[in-house]
Amino acid sequence: MTLMNSKPMNLDIKQLFFHLSLSLFISYSLSAEEKKESIIEKKNSNYEAVVRIENSSLNPDYKTPWNSGRDSGGNGTGWLVAENKFLTNAHVVSNSRIIYIKKVGDAKPYRARIVHIAHDCDLAMLELEDPSAFEGVKPFDVGKLPQLDTKVKVIGYPIGGERISITSGVVSRIDFLSYSHTNVDLHLTVQIDAAINPGNSGGPVIQGGKVVGVAFQGYSGNIAQNTGYMIPPPVIKRFLKDVEDGNYDHYVDLSMSDFPLLNPSQRIALGLPNDGIGIMVSNVEEDGSAGGILKTGDVLLEIDGLTVKSNGLINYGGEDVNMNEIVERKFAGDVIDLKIWRNKQPMNTQVTLKRFMPYLIAARKYDEKPRYVMFAGLVFQPLDRNLMAAHNMKSLQVRYHFDSYVSSNIYKERPEVIVLTSILPDSINSYFNQFTQSIVDKVNGVKVKNLKDVHLALSKNDGDYIIINLLGSGRPIVIEEGKIEEAQKRIQTKYNVIKDHYLGPIE
Fold this sequence. Notes:
Blueprint lengths: L1 H43 L5 E10 L10 E13 L2 E4 L1 H4 L2 E7 L6 E10 L4 E6 L22 E6 L8 E14 L7 E7 L11 E4 L2 E10 L7 E5 L1 H10 L13 E5 L3 H7 L8 E6 L14 E5 L2 E2 L5 E4 L2 E4 L1 H5 L6 E8 L2 E8 L19 E4 L2 E5 L2 H7 L4 H8 L6 H4 L4 E6 L14 E6 L2 E2 L3 H9 L5 E6 L6 E4 L3 H11 L6 E2 L5
Antiparallel strand pairs: 1-2, 1-4, 2-3, 3-6, 4-5, 5-6, 7-8, 7-10, 8-9, 9-12, 10-11, 11-12, 13-14, 14-15, 15-16, 15-19, 17-18, 19-20, 21-22, 21-28, 22-23, 23-24, 24-25, 24-26, 26-27
């Protein structure tokens, strides 16, 4: 019995040694491969091309728009993308007054300026006033979109540190997500499990010695830990291509909305096979790219020859991505081919792409002075996200106009929605406080379509009274013309209003 069992026992021992040897070999091989990769990374590491950015900014005050604003400062990271051209996040240098760049191992700050800034994709390009300190420093090359479950390194200056920091992580997700800088723009985004902290923003994410992303958002909380996001190569390359002519022309879009076409009965009613292809057009902006071409109820089958799945995804470069990724890579004036299903028949059409400006009401604004008119203590301002936040707008009327500005075509009647935001108390405007956070409809019988209309109507009055009609109010604001000049001087002096209006850079 013992002899009969000895052979299997010896065999098991041999197998054990075999597997152990194989494991050691594999382990050695992997270790050697990782070591080789590490050597390559180290060889290709170009830390001199990674810089610390210090920004002194002036944040506008939308409550008292005549004031200069509030000083603040912060730091981020940038990297050399071409000779005397440094790339970073737009949010690192927004509302900038003075920008300095510091080199690795060099405490001296070098004055820099913004060449191009793209708030919609959170990227900015800087240059040094004196680039001599970076002569001979090799710029980074921009690589390809990294694959899922591959390692990357994040280089930067997190938490205000003066010395460079390197963290490693793995690409865990590729998606089409909102960029927090404007809170309205959606682009291709790569999620990694490397820590991205304040100060990392704008820094390069490296793989194989090339930049495969720009660190720009991080998240740490009860829901997710050490979750970071980077701007991927397609977005970076588009920005670099856009500014080649010396100007940044912004993103374009189809200016339409859609919804998944998954219900079998709905597909049968439309005459479509249940093949998982096609999304339904739910709304088309008349003044947008697809206006007059696409219709509500159309089914989008293909975009630039690529099949649109019924969940809105397309297979692009071997990955399932949002169909808007095709539009993302286009520029104003580019033509996009569409195959649609209409009246139970397929048809082909084309759309020439352009920017749809009304969307901007929903975006956070930067690098702009607040526009306003102050008249007899009444402060008028155009409605946008910055104004909503600054004044904590609770008026249901104002909130409706903000939320429905595009969907209800408000922009056609009122290209700018003008709000009476506040009143500087004076005898000439007593008992008018109830009218704050109201929308201006007319001034002296003139329909108000923008801030310039308000300014002109108030300054060119021939009657004895100024009459301001507010939307939805039967009671107008009435101000005696003969008392205005004296009151204006009195109010400007009392409240330190240096200028009674600012209509924009070109008045």
